[in-house]
């Protein structure tokens, strides 16, 4: 006897997930890690940080497996909160006068091929 199968497809998956991530971030829901850098605290989601950054993935997997707070090295790219960069996939503007070495180290820390360049 042949069994019939149904194909389920969610046409708006990406838009829906992006919208939910934005709501979670702006609403402060389910935040499970605190990032500390240069006197600033940023609350974030481990899963989003891990999905978007090899640097954070390794940090959270090894050094912070059980912890809820991470102290990041001075000059880490938290001049803008991760929610403005990771959740919507938006560009983040960094003042080149802050430190060229910090901007240059961003590419090596994040472990991706995304472009780091001057904005026109």
Structural class: alpha+beta
Largest β sheet strand count, sense and barrel closure: 3 strands, mixed
Helix count, DSSP H or I runs of 4 or more residues: 5
Number of domains: 1
Separation of the first and last Cα atoms: 64 Å
- Please give the share of residues in helix: 25-40%
Instruction: Give the topology string: H per helix, E per strand.
Output: HEEHHEHH
CATH topology: Potassium Channel Kv1.1, Chain A
According to CATH, the homologous superfamily is Potassium Channel Kv1.1, Chain A
Number of strand segments: 3
| Binned strand content | 5-15%
The global form is elongated
Radius of gyration: 18 Å
Walk me through what this model shows.
- This protein is an alpha+beta fold and 120 residues long.
- It has helices at 13-27, 46-52, 54-63, 82-85, 100-110; strands at residues 33-37, 40-44, 69-71.
- A three-stranded mixed β-sheet has the order 2-1-3.
- The N and C termini lie far apart (64 Å).
Structure summary:
With about 120 residues, the chain is α+β, with helices and mostly antiparallel strands. The chain is built from 5 helices and 3 strands, in the order αββααβαα. It has a 3-stranded mixed beta sheet with strand order 2-1-3.
How are the elements arranged and paired?
Blueprint: H1 13-27, E1 33-37, E2 40-44, H2 46-52, H3 54-63, E3 69-71, H4 82-85, H5 100-110
Descriptive key words:
Potassium Channel Kv1.1, Chain A, BTB/POZ_dom, Broad-complex core protein isoforms 1/2/3/4/5, 11% strand, 5 helices, Dros_DevTransReg, 120 residues, elongated, alpha+beta
């Amino acid at each position: 006897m042949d069994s019939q199968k149904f194909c389920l497809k969610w046409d708006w998956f990406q838009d829906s997930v992006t919208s939910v991530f934005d709501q979670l971030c702006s609403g402060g829901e389910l935040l499970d890690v605190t990032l500390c850098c240069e006197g600033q605290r940023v609350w974030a989601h481990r899963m989003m940080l891990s999905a978007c950054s090899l640097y954070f993935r390794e940090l959270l997997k090894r050094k912070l497996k059980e912890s809820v707070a991470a102290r990041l090295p001075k000059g880490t790219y938290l001049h803008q909160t991760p929610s403005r960069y990771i959740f919507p996939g938006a560009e983040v503007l960094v003042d080149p006068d802050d430190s060229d070495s910090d901007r240059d180290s961003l590419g090596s820390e994040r472990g991706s091929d995304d472009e780091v360049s001057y904005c026109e």
